[in-house]
Amino acid sequence: QVQLVESGGGLVQAGGSLRLSCAASGRTLYLMGWFRQAPGKEREFVARISRFGLGTSYADSVKGRFTISRDNAKNTVYLQMNSLKPEDTAVYYCAAGPDSYKMVLNTGDMDYWGKGILVTVSS
Question: Which residues share a beta bridge with 70?
Fold first, then answer.
């Protein structure tokens, strides 16, 4: 079992930055990903990082603006979000799953989920 807790969300103006953190407990050496869900939309993939942090990939909509990283000694995964846009407004979810070579993950690829944290970008 893995428990995931997100932190670092909030309100930011367009062009600003936020860093989300995901603290994991339990058995933690998993592929980790960030997903997001905007009001009225389906949950979508944002970024993933392999178990040892050697491989990352991003959704096209965030590529060049967001960076995913992890510190396995702290059992924590991060999502640095820069140049934020109003369309980035969503509830962001941290997720864990088995290692995969897929560059874009689906929600079905992940086994464990955090409760989510709201990020609001004002224009």
Answer: 77
